[in-house]
C-alpha cells in the first residue's frame, strides 16, 4: 500500500477532537448523563481524548468505556476461525444515559450497527450518538454520524489509516492506495 494523501497531522487531530468535544457539549446541553464509549481499537484512545477536552471545558470528568463488537459483526464468519478479542469494559450503568459512541472511521456503517447491538445488550440508553474522526462515505446501512471531524470522499480502492497512540508511533490520518504497489506506509 502506498500513502496517497496526508489528511491530518497531530496538531490538526487535536484541534478537530477539541471541536468535536465542544459540539458534544453543545448538543447535549452540558455533561449531565453523558458517557463516551470507544469502539475497539482506535475509537478508545479517541474517546479518552474527547473526554479530556470535555473535562477541560466543563470541569467535569466524563465516564469512558470501551466496546468490543467482534461477536456482533455480520461478517464474523469471514474474519477468522479464532477472532481476536480486545474486550469490553463499561464500568458504569448506561441505562438512561446519553451515550456517544466514538470510532475512528465511518465507512459502510456496519461497525456502528454492531456497536449499537452490543450497547443494547448492556442496557437501555436514553440516546445513542456517534462521533467519528473521519467519514469516508460508501454507506451500506442508513447510519450517519452526529459529530464528524472531517468528511473525506474516497474510492473503494483507498483506505483511511488513522494512526494514533498507543497503537502507532505517530498521530496522523492518511489515505492509502490499495493498488499502489509495494510502498511503505
What does this structure look like?
By secondary structure, the chain is α/β, with parallel strands linked by helices. The protein has a single domain (about 10-155), classed as Rossmann fold (3-Layer(aba) Sandwich). About 30% of the residues lie in helices and about 30% in strands. It has four helices and eight strands. The strands form two sheets. Strands 3-2-4-5-6 form a five-stranded parallel beta sheet. Strands 1-8-7 form a three-stranded antiparallel beta sheet. The longest helix has 18 residues, at about 10-25.
Distance from N terminus to C terminus (CA atoms, Å) equals 7 Å
Give average pLDDT, whole number: 91
Assign a percent range to the helix content.
25-40%
Query: Which regions contain 5 or more consecutive residues with pLDDT less than 50?
Result: none
As a whole number of angstroms, the C-alpha radius of gyration is: 16 Å
Enumerate how many helices there are, as a single number.
4
Spatial strand sequence of the major β-sheet: 3-2-4-5-6
Instruction: State the major sheet.
Output: 5 strands, parallel
The CATH topology assignment is Rossmann fold
Quickly name the level 1 CATH class. Alpha Beta
The outline comes out as globular
> What is the domain total for the residues?
1
| Proportion of beta-strand residues | 25-35%
The helix/strand series, from N terminus to C terminus, equals EHEHEHEHEEEE
User: What's the CATH architecture name?
Assistant: 3-Layer(aba) Sandwich
SS class: alpha/beta
Strands, total number: 8
Amino acid at each position: 500500500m502506498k500513502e496517497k494523501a496526508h489528511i491530518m497531522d497531530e496538531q490538526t487531530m487535536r484541534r478537530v477532537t477539541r471541536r468535536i468535544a465542544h459540539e458534544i457539549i453543545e448538543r447535549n446541553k452540558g455533561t449531565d448523563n453523558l458517557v463516551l464509549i470507544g469502539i475497539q481499537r482506535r475509537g478508545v484512545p479517541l474517546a479518552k481524548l474527547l473526554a479530556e477536552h470535555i473535562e477541560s471545558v466543563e470541569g467535569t470528568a466524563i465516564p469512558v468505556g470501551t466496546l468490543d463488537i467482534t461477536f456482533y459483526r455480520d461478517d464474523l464468519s469471514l474474519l477468522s476461525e479464532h477472532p481476536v478479542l480486545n474486550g469490553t469494559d463499561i464500568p458504569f450503568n448506561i441505562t438512561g444515559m446519553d451515550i456517544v459512541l466514538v470510532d475512528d472511521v465511518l465507512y459502510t456503517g456496519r461497525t456502528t450497527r454492531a456497536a449499537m447491538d452490543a450497547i443494547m445488550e448492556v442496557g437501555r440508553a436514553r440516546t445513542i450518538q456517534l462521533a467519528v474522526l473521519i467519514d469516508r462515505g460508501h454507506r451500506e446501512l442508513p447510519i450517519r454520524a452526529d459529530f464528524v471531524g472531517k468528511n473525506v470522499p474516497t474510492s473503494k480502492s483507498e483506505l483511511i489509516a488513522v494512526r494514533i497512540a498507543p497503537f502507532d508511533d505517530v498521530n496522523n490520518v492518511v489515505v492509502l492506495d490499495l493498488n499502489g504497489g509495494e510502498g511503505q506506509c
